[in-house]
Amino acid sequence: MKVLTGYIVKEVLKGAFIAAILLLTLFNLFTFSDELGDLSETYGLKEIFYYIALTTPGIFCELVPASALLGSLFILGAMGNNRELIAMRAAGLSIFGIIRAVMLAGAVLVISSILIGEFVAPITERFAKNLRLTAQNGPVQVNSDYGIWLREDKKFINVRQIIDDHHLADISIYELNDQQHLQQTLHADSAVFLGNQQWDLNNIKSSVISTQQILVNKQEHLLWLTSIAPNLLKSVVINPNNLTFVDLSRYINFLKKNHQESHAFELAFWERIVSPLDTFIMLLLSAPFIISVKRGVSVGERMMIGIAIGMGFNVVDKLVGHLGLIYNLNPPLIAFIPCLTMLMLALYSVKRMRD
């Protein structure tokens, strides 16, 4: 039985790997097409290919459930058509033995996805973001941690809150002199984008620092000329999908401690927990379907079935997530609803096969 189990695991992993390559190629082609719209002298084809390569690990982690579903449908379907499954059952391997072997393959996929998602994808995503923004925005360099940090020439800007595309809050600007010593600090309660690289700062407190004294000044309004535009700030906002599990947990605690909105990050946190279960559920759903389907069903039909199931689950998952954010619903509940719905459907399919 170990030989048969190992054979099924190896074949399902092979099918999932092929499906992942095909899906990654398709997604990267769409990304390449989108990036061509931003083609410029500083952001050329070389930078676009680097950007696509750096974002590939993160996309792979998102595609693991769909790849597992398509790979298992293809491989188990081929085994069914070639009467291999019948031979395995005749040799003593039960239906649940076949499903167990498929789940073992899923465990390998899940472990690989977790390792890449925690230790590789966040790093490459940050490199990709910095590469793209630096190429497109010239002198502006980006470093994001808690709050948004940007560098423009000798100025370091920290934005704590982005209210919307044209309104900021809690802005601090630190300016260095030629000797890299701090010569001026400025803090504004809010800022409004006026267009033409101009921001209107409100309720400003500034300090000019020298070796002899510190001069403090307060103003109600100040015109701030900068190359930092709203689209750049929108691009460097912390993306919950680009944080590791530990960093995401710490950032949620940081937001709560500072009385800031954390609902989207909490939902991303619970979706990260649920994500490995999605792969197992996709495999559990595919196994009884293939085993019970009539022999002779074409590869194209199986692929269409897999695509329909995967797309349906993804649409429902995104829809429920957005509804949860709009109506401020409980994040764990919203994260588990699609997963548990598919689990019940999979268990019902297994039960029907057993009956």
Fold and architecture overview:
This protein is α+β, with helices and mostly antiparallel strands and 355 residues long. The protein folds into two domains: 2-128 and 242-354, no CATH class; 141-226. It is 63% helix and 19% strand. The chain has ten helices and seven strands. Strands 1-2-3-4-5-6-7 form a seven-stranded antiparallel β-sheet. A hairpin with a 2-residue loop joins strand 2 (147-152) and strand 3 (155-164). The longest helix has 37 residues, at 45-81.
Strand residue content: 15-25%
Tally of extended strands? 7
Task: Give the fraction of residues assigned to helices.
Answer: 55-70%
- The poorly predicted ranges are 139-144
Number of domains: 2
**Average predicted confidence as pLDDT:** 85
Radius of gyration using CA atoms only: 26 Å
Order of helices and strands: HHHHHEEEEEEEHHHHH
Largest sheet: 7 strands, antiparallel
Q: How many separate helices?
A: 10
Based on secondary structure, the structural category is alpha+beta
| General shape | elongated
Side by side, the strands of the main sheet go 1-2-3-4-5-6-7
For the record, give the distance between the C-alpha atoms at the N and C termini, rounded to a whole number.
24 Å
